[in-house]
Amino acid sequence: MPTDDDQRPDPDALLEQVEAEERKAARGKLKIFFGASPGVGKTYAMLQAARQQQTLGVDAVVGLVETHNRSETAGLLDGLERLPLRQMQHQGRSYAEFDLDAALQRRPQLLLVDELAHSNAPGSRHPKRWQDVEELLAEGIDIYTTINVQHLESLNDVVGRITGARVWETVPDHVFDAADEVVLVDLPPDELLARLKAGKVYVPQQAERAMQNFFRKGNLMALRELSLRRTADRVDEDVQAWRKEQSVGMVWPMRESLLVCIRPGSGAERLVRSAARLAVQLDVPWHALYVETPRLQRLPDAERRQALKALQLAQELGAQTANQMADDSVEAIIGYARNNNLGKVLIGREKARPWWPRLRPNLGQRLLARAPDLDIVQLANAGVDGEKPASTPQDKLPIQWRRYGAAVLAVLAVTLLSSALHGILAQVNIVMLYLLATVLVAFRYGRNPAIVGSVLAVLAFDFFFVQPHLTFAVADLQYLLTFAVMLGVAVITAHLTSSLRLQRDAAHGRERRTRLLYQMARDLSAVLSVEQTEEAVRTFVQQGFQAEAVLLPLGMGDKLPPPPQTPQGVQLDMALAQWAIDHAAPAGLSTDTLPLAPVLYLPLKAPMRTRGILAIQPRQASWLPTPEQERLLQAGASLVAIALERLHYIEVAQQALLQMESEQLRNNLLAALSHDLRTPLTALVGLADALTLQQPRLQEPHAGLAQAIREEALRTTALVHNLLDMARLQAGTVKLHKEWQPLEEVVGTALRARAGMLAQHEVRVELPPDLPLVEFDAVLIERVLVNLLENAAKYTLAGSRITMGAHPQGKDMHIRVCDNGAGLPAGMEKRVFDKFTRGQEESAISGVGLGLSIVRAIVEAHKGRVWAERGEGGTGVCFVFTLPLGQPPAMPRELLP
Fold it and tell me: How far is CA 812 from CA 19, 167, 299, 772, 887, in A?
């Protein structure tokens, strides 16, 4: 039975509780009025509660309340201070939003903020209203708010399937769970439908449509059940927290819950399946517990594996599993049940036992005697799962016989020593020697050999050292008490020593696993390559699991490349490893997927994605990890995954830094070359013009050569301008001078600028007469159009058609420049906008591939998009870019017609 010392609270837990209470005291209180659907009266109940608080002297202020034109609700606002709403402008429309800054400046004791799931207008400090509420709570302001069940993130899809209408404004469940108080505002479906028909929820036209869709009676009943269940779960969590805070020991049977106790044996899996079926029938949560006592640790490995497999099966069937080590299984079961408030304990019915074990009550009887607050249910658990598992060679008896033989030899050695010193040692000292031998046997070989040694020690003491000698007869009856005390002390000492030995071994095992995990974490924190990571993992697995490990990092295309080398004897199945990656689930040895495979494949799940596979091949053929080993393995795999992800991002950062430095160097080089080339090119153009215009005029072929020099110099000048523009755009030194202006003007300017190149093409301009004004930088957008027109003229034959058009679509203005030429090669639609990339790589047409890069940079600076697509009829190419429309300013009255 637990003592008073066992019931004392943990000082660390008390300190943590005090700190949590201090943090909670500095934070505002959140009260949520929770309902199944609109119209049940959440806002009405919230306002009633606020008015009641106001009568008690609380400074209550309305931050935002949606009355939905309901007179009863609006009437409750009388007498409550209301904060002015903030007007937000977005896409030409005005939105009235909750003013967070005004609420923080006013700092009332209690603030009412309706509709917690609301999405704020763009431009607000937070995208969601619940984030506004979090900031207010952090400032110590109490909040009343409302929410419907369909707005909870975890239930959003469920409600969508029930009603056929899914809402997109949701609140994370942790916000709901962290509320200090949740008030369920409930209304039967018939009463809600009556309110709907009476026009108290929506106007008559909306009410009629709502009753045919969302507000069907079946929907309302289902939503009501969901809200009741979610509230019940919340209340259950509150009760559990209070029980833990108050250290309540007894189980409170508020909600059905099951605890199945797993014990070694062939019927363990059947017991688990029966418990799972019962939990499904009762629709209750269930737990599975395996308590490993010193006696169970001495069982053969085959029987222990059966219990661990049953625990794994329980986890797969949906149970919350736990594995504990304790001296007393009954005390561990009772403690676990009370800590988790589990009222029903399921155990397997024990087989009939011979008369001598019946002197000790079975597990069910001990549970009933020591835990009257628990319901104990016995289930049949034998005779179905097969015969008792066959023992492995290491489980057979020779090892046990050697232990018992060692106990006999220890007693024999003490007897010989005592016989040699019989005249010197008193009988009390001889008894002490026998007890010492018993302790040593218990410490080295376990409890049962020590008990056998204790019995033999009593018999030897009686036979050799108690008169009459060499017989078991006793001359003095007081020796019977001596024998009884000697035997009792020896047995108790053997039991305690054996238990301490097992506890020592368990503590050493935990310390060893923790040390291995710490060593690997320390090694992984310093690795700089995948090879170093694999070396740390291999050491960890070899020392912790007596197994070989191979690290398979993920390659290109989410495929696993074969390792360059594997340890001797490791047989990898790359198809099975790829299956584990694709399904993000373990595969191979001791799993549900090809459990007979010799290798276990663990996916390395990092925070962002799966980073590879850890393949483990044990040295023993029959290997089933204990729950502690599984947890250690999962923790190690998580550390490896995080290390691989860190290496990945280090490589990404290095590549990005190298790319940025290369880009900066290239831009500096381009800018320097462009500046140095502009002066000689200008001079060259001037000299070519002078040669052309001099008197007397040059004759052919000299005149043609002078004109060719001029044209090439102009082309090179245009190239230099492109290089300069690209360098300035990349450096971010270009500032937009945006103005509201008609698009027609810049189109005309671009056509005039490239009139010479377009002279041999058919140019069509399709601009509707009612195009709205657009805000853009005229010089830069002209450059975009010039580059697109130049690109179309260069890559199409003389006489081909070039079409330019524009039309508003949605929130953007779409501008198109199309041709009916050869078009782009497949797969070049995106790459053509990269720097120094040309649509036709082997083309003889001059150019370096910067024109479209400049187009993309200028358009993106205007918050637009640009892309290439096939032309009409599948011929040619169309380059399309967009500019945001926005809302043009109003024209002054004096300029209006």
Answer: 54, 27, 76, 11, 11
Q: Are 596 and 614 in contact (CB under 8 A)?
A: no
| CA 145 – CA 34 distance, rounded (Å) | 9
Q: Which two tokens stand for residue 258?
A: 């099951």
Decide if 121 contacts 137 (C-beta within 8 A). Answer: no
**Alpha carbons 499 and 501: distance in angstroms, whole number:** 5
**C-alpha distances in angstroms, 44 versus 71, 75, 108, 180?**
11, 10, 21, 20
Beta bridge partners of 320: 287
Contacts with 460 (C-beta within 8 Å, 6 or more apart), sequence order: 411, 414, 415, 434
Cβ 135 vs Cβ 118: under 8 Å: no
- What is the pLDDT, as a whole number, of residue 549? 92
Q: Can you tell me the distance from the alpha carbon of 147 to that of 645, in angstroms, rounded to the nearest whole number?
A: 39
Please state, in angstroms and rounded to a whole number, the distance separating the CA atoms of residues 249 and 337. 10
Structure tokens at 860: 């993106």
- Provide the 10 A C-beta neighbour count for residue 413: 12
Looking at residue 395, its pLDDT comes to 40
Note the pLDDT of residue 788.
93
pLDDT of residue 30: 93
What was the pLDDT predicted at 160?
79
Contact 517, 636 (CB under 8 A): yes
- CA-CA distance, 502 to 446, in Å (whole number)? 9
Check: CB of residue 477 under 8 Å from CB of residue 466. no
Task: Quote the CA–CA distance of 805 and 803 in Å, as a whole number.
Answer: 7
CB 136 within 8 A of CB 101: no
CA distance 112 to 143: 6
Q: Tell me the CA end-to-end span of the chain in Å, nearest whole number.
A: 98
Q: Which residues contact 794 (CB under 8 A, 6 or more apart)?
A: 757, 845, 847
Sign of CA dihedral 467, 471, 472, 474: negative
3-class SS letters over 515-534? HHHHHHHHHHCCCCCHHHHH
What sign does the dihedral 379-380-385-389 (CA atoms) show?
Answer: positive
Mean pLDDT by 10 residues, the chain (897 residues): 48 63 80 90 92 92 87 87 86 82 92 91 87 92 92 83 78 89 89 78 63 73 85 75 64 74 82 89 87 72 74 85 83 87 85 55 84 85 42 43 84 88 82 86 80 85 82 77 80 78 76 86 90 91 88 80 81 90 86 84 89 90 70 87 90 85 73 69 75 69 76 72 68 78 92 87 91 91 91 88 92 92 83 76 62 89 91 86 85 50
Whether the pTM exceeds 0.90: the reply is: no
Residue 69's SS3 state is coil
d(CA 192, CA 162): 18
Sort 246 into a burial class: Cβ within 10 Å, 0-12 / 13-18 / 19+: exposed
- The helix (H) or strand (E) run that includes residue 112 is strand 110-113
| Contact call for residues 517 and 524 (beta carbons, < 8 A) | no
Question: 184: which residues sit within 8 A by CB, 6+ positions away?
Answer: 34, 35, 227, 228, 231
From CA 881, how far away is CA 747, in angstroms rounded?
14
